[in-house]
């Protein structure tokens, strides 16, 4: 199929629109059904508004890329719905993350728990998780596709939760080194953002993770996923809030055990170390304090080192693509995605 | 099969033990796998301890009853695992409920969020929900069984969350009447406690909800489920904390919009109404205040009226069993369950 595969087969913007339409229609139907049975429509409505307020749809796009990488053609509706279910799961993860991190702003708007209260936000997150299942199960997949998809979806979900659990048990204390921080990154984000969606898509096309195609997608996906999160860590500290949609101080106030912070602590002199320990994880951190932390992160070379780690990972992923036997239009798309996921500003 | 079906085919105690073993083995494996991959075992361990600390396993028992009601024999391992997944879902619902209700005690011990903090408890609840899926998906069901089970499981889950959402949006304000309170009861508890598990079990035996057997199970399950929750409401106010495992003041402090409270408000004179409004939903409610509320609930006849509602529902369920064409040993079990679910003290 690679011979007859023009770039138009993988129109990312069209795919994003199709995902949005799928999610909107699904949630509108959910809200209507709830109302018809005397149940609150608000939960599904708030969830729908949250999803439409932003997001790059990177997971559904990668799922469809995985499907086509493994020989799938176009984007059949069941594949589109399975891909969209990843975005619904992502909404769940963000809503509960924001409660856990006590974040006030997401996608340039108040976080869900700031809109409706923590109690309702917990339930809206729960609903998103259940509806992610529902969307996957009712996607119209064949029994063989469903059987292949379920274990991947379950592992992806459990890993995300384990990673987040690891994250909160490390938050607020100085990271023990870049190793543990990288483990958090790997499970909390890398797998469910890049590798998992690719493997899910491939599984829908009948290709498992231990085939040459599946192994290539993992070998590409893991480093890009890590680079994605390392970029996120940098943006959380150095990013422009107008572009990221998140306040400039949130990540520093929370004191996440990031690779960036671990490297800075490792290289800091006593004065720099005091600056970090005093400010990072301090819920009352000021803009002045944040500036001092940024200076230390830069002066210790941690910021540059993380940029190097991102670059290395991006190179590893590109090298994998060079040797992997994937359809040319997918190789091109995955190259583009590796850059846009790791060199982004939002 | 009814001819060769002795009571021993449905040994509730043996079934409970088998469910417990299934859950313990599954969670031990989860914890071990997590540890092997550098992930925290604590989440699965805390969840396992919580499940083993108590619970009547009523949902798995009903699932197996539904299976046998629809012609299934014994309790094959896939059916046992599917049944156990309902208990895992129940753990999710309780853990998040307790956070939402700010409850301090459950099953005679500190609630999960009092043990590990709210952030970790949100994630342990999330993990329970994901693992409930995992246990169902890896139960070893046939594709046909899985296809039949998934929509029932999803509806049951979404309804529980919608019911809880309805509950919190009504909590703290005087209930508008017994009607809305009964809707909450129906969705928050009745469906996922009795009807859902029965229908899930029947579906595993190839019997859908619109067959005579499925309709009989619904006609039995809905009233028993409502009676179960109405009993729970009474126990929350009048129960013995040593038996219920929950503090005597929690439900009153929270101010749930129960049928009990709605009926009391409907029948109260101005003095009684003031007592209710002043005390119910008051987070600082004293034992003295609670005694005054209990007196009003009794004096207005609300307590007796709820006992009547429970009795009516129990009678409806028993009448259904009289006319339904279910295997005799299941009819006997369901009779017993109707009494034990609605006349219980814990």
Q: Please bin the fraction of helical residues of chain A.
A: over 70%
- CATH superfamily descriptor of chain A: Farnesyl Diphosphate Synthase
Largest interface: A-B, 46 and 46 residues
CATH class group of chain A: Mainly Alpha
Pfam family, one (chains A, B): polyprenyl_synt
Family (chains A, B): Belongs to the FPP/GGPP synthase family.
Protein name (chains A, B): Polyprenyl synthetase family protein
Cofactor (chains A, B): Mg(2+)
What would you say about this model in short?
Chain A is mostly helical. Chain A has 16 helices and 2 strands. Chain A has a single domain, classed as Farnesyl Diphosphate Synthase (Orthogonal Bundle), CATH 1.10.600.
From the structure above, extract its key features.
74% helix, metal-binding (chains A, B), two-stranded antiparallel sheet, homodimer, Polyprenyl_synt (chains A, B), Polyprenyl_synt_CS (chains A, B), 2 strands, disordered N terminus, Isoprenoid_synthase_dom_sf (chains A, B), 16 helices, Farnesyl Diphosphate Synthase, mainly alpha, 346 residues, Polyprenyl synthetase family protein (chains A, B)
Task: Please explain how this structure is put together.
The structure is a homodimer of 346-residue chains. The first copy, chain A, has 346 residues and is mostly helical. Chain A has one domain: Farnesyl Diphosphate Synthase. Chain A has 16 helices and 2 strands. A two-stranded antiparallel ribbon of chain A has the order 1-2. In chain A, a hairpin with a 2-residue loop joins strand 1 (105-106) and strand 2 (109-110). In chain A, helix 8 (178-204) packs across helix 9 and helix 8 (178-204) runs antiparallel to helix 12. The longest helix of chain A is centred in the middle third of the chain and has 28 residues, at 143-170. The first copy, chain A, is globular. Residues 1-8 of chain A have low confidence and may be disordered. Chains A and B meet through helix 4, helix 6 and helix 7 of A and helix 4, helix 6 and helix 7 of B. Chains A, B: Belongs to the FPP/GGPP synthase family. Chains A, B: InterPro entries: Isoprenoid_synthase_dom_sf (IPR008949), Polyprenyl_synt (IPR000092), Polyprenyl_synt_CS (IPR033749). Chains A, B: Its cofactor is Mg(2+). Chains A, B: Keywords: Magnesium, Metal-binding, Transferase. Chains A, B: This is Polyprenyl synthetase family protein.
């Amino acid at each position: 199929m690679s011979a007859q595969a023009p770039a138009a087969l993988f129109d990312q913007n069209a795919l994003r629109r199709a995902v949005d339409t799928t999610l909107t229609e699904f949630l509108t139907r959910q809200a209507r059904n709830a109302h018809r049975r005397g149940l609150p429509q608000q939960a599904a409505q708030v969830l729908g508004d949250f999803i439409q307020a932003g997001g790059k749809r990177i997971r559904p796009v990668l799922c469809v890329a995985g499907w086509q990488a493994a020989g799938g053609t176009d984007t059949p509706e069941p594949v589109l719905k399975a891909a969209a279910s990843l975005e619904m799961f992502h909404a769940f993860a963000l809503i509960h993350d924001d409660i856990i991190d006590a974040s006030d702003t997401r996608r340039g708007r108040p976080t869900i728990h700031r809109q409706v209260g923590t109690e309702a936000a917990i339930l809206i997150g729960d609903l998103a998780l259940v509806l992610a299942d529902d969307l996957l199960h009712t996607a119209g997949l064949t029994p063989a596709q469903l059987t292949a998809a379920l274990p991947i979806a379950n592992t992806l979900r459990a890993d995300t939760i384990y990673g987040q659990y690891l994250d909160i048990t490390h938050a607020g204390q100085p990271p023990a080194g870049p190793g543990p921080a990288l483990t958090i990154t790997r499970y909390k984000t890398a797998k469910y953002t890049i590798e998992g969606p690719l493997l899910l898509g491939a599984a829908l096309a009948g290709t498992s993770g231990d085939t040459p195609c599946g192994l290539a997608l993992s070998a590409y996906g893991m480093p890009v996923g890590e680079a994605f999160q390392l970029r996120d860590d940098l943006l959380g500290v150095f990013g422009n809030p107008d572009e990221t949609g998140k306040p400039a101080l949130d990540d520093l106030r929370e004191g996440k055990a990031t690779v960036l912070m671990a490297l800075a602590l490792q290289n800091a002199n006593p004065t720099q170390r005091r600056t970090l320990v005093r400010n990072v994880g301090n819920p009352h951190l000021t803009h002045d304090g944040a500036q001092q932390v940024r200076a230390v992160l830069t002066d210790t070379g941690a910021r540059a080192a993380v940029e190097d780690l991102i670059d290395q990972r991006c190179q590893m992923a590109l090298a994998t693509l060079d040797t992997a036997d994937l359809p040319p239009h997918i190789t091109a798309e995955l190259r583009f995605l590796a850059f846009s996921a790791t060199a982004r500003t939002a």
